[in-house]
Amino acid sequence: MNKPERSFLVSTEWLEANLTSPDLKVVDASYFLPNEDRDARKDYEEEHIPGAVFFDIDAIKDPESPLPHMLPPPEVFSAKVRKLGLGDGNRIVVYDRRGLMSAPRVWWTFRAFGAREVMVLDGGLPKWKAEGRPLDDHPVLPMERHFTARLNTTLVRDLEQMQRNLESRREQVVDARASARFDGSAEEIRPGLRSGHIPGSRSLPFTELCDPSDGTLLPDAELRAKFEAAGLDLSRPIVTTCGSGVTAAVLSLALAELGKQDAALYDGSWTEWGQPGDTPVQTGPAE
Fold first, then answer.
1. Separation between Cα atoms, residue 181 and residue 52, nearest integer Å
2. DSSP 3-state assignment of 27?
3. C-alpha pair distances (Å), 50 with each of 133, 237, 248
4. Cα gap 170→173, rounded to integer Å
5. Which of 92, 149, 171, 272 would staple 113 via disulfide (CB 3.0–4.6 Å)?
6. pLDDT tens for each residue of the chain, 287 residues long
7. What region, left, alpha or beta, does residue 22 occupy, with left being phi > 0 and alpha being psi -120 to 50 degrees?
8. Which residues lie below 8 Å from residue 195, measured CB to CB, with a gap of 6+?
9. If we measure between CA atoms, which residue out of 65, 26, 6, 14 comes closest to residue 245?
10. Helix, strand, coil % (nearest 5) of the chain?
11. Which residues pair with 71 in a beta bridge?
């Protein structure tokens, strides 16, 4: 298969043309927020891209962490994706039902565990369906395939690292949540969390990086302008964050498309930082 047009994205045309390629695996990574009362697995069972397997973000996680969908240990990740038939030597294309919302989280997860050939369907399932491309509801029975998982810690940040960064400011922090959640004027969707943002962080809602007409990622020049308008210096280290580490990956994907593949993601994000405690919280616009 020829390489797709962009580094980490494939078009709907490209995916349909390559659906039957033996080394290509398609993954439905749809996810809904706790307050949406929707079942992503049920939606997948009703319709999915032919041959796609379902990656459950809330199940493929660290079983020891009280936080939602934190990265699992490498051996847990390897065991889970093996059963999905996702292994060494596969090319993996991930999509979701929102266009670009949760698929980048699974893209980032595979990259964090060493996968080299993992991409995101640009525009996701909404664009695929709008174009009348094939769907089915057939159960998928994958053959197990070994996945060698080695965690790349340069792509992940934890609470202690984020606290140290408050003093050093070595890394810029950019938040993918909606502006009202960032500035504290809206309540958090998870009960018990404080409102606001990590001091010194910048706001760039992930929805601003997508073309409203078809849900695809904006062209590189427009992406660059968005990050710069948010006050970010693309020549310096960047950490992405959000509510629980899902939509932060949309920013990570955009940064990777701009050639910044070393941007890290704060896995615990606001679900960890915003807990009652002594982590400092800032409200109002970015300073």
1. 34
2. strand
3. 10, 39, 28
4. 10
5. 149
6. 454 567 899 999 999 999 999 999 999 999 998 788 899 999 999 999 999 999 999 999 999 999 999 999 999 999 999 999 999 999 999 999 999 999 999 999 999 999 999 999 999 999 999 999 999 999 999 999 999 999 999 999 999 999 999 999 999 999 999 999 999 999 999 999 999 999 999 999 999 999 999 999 999 999 999 999 999 999 999 999 999 999 999 999 999 999 998 899 999 999 999 999 999 999 999 98
7. alpha
8. 181, 184, 185, 186, 187, 188, 274, 281, 283
9. 65
10. 30, 15, 55
11. none
| 93 contacts: CB under 8 Å, gap ≥ 6 | 10, 15, 24, 25, 26, 27, 118, 119, 120, 121
DSSP readout, 162-227?
HHHHHHH--SEEEE-S-HHHHHTSS--SSTTPPPSB-TT-EE--GGGGB-TTT-PBPPHHHHHHHH
- Answer whether 98's CB lies under 8 Å from 124's CB: yes
Interhelix angle 248-257/220-229, nearest 10 degrees: 120
What Å distances lie between residue 266 and 86, 110, 134, 162, CA to CA?
25, 16, 36, 8
SS3 call for 62: coil
> How crowded is residue 45: how many other Cβ atoms within 10 Å of its Cβ?
15
Phi, psi of 33 (to 5 degrees): -70, 155
Cα(107)–Cα(84) distance, integer angstroms: 15
Q: Are 22 and 35 in contact (CB under 8 A)?
A: no
Residue 34 DSSP symbol: G
Name the token pair of 69: 């969908």
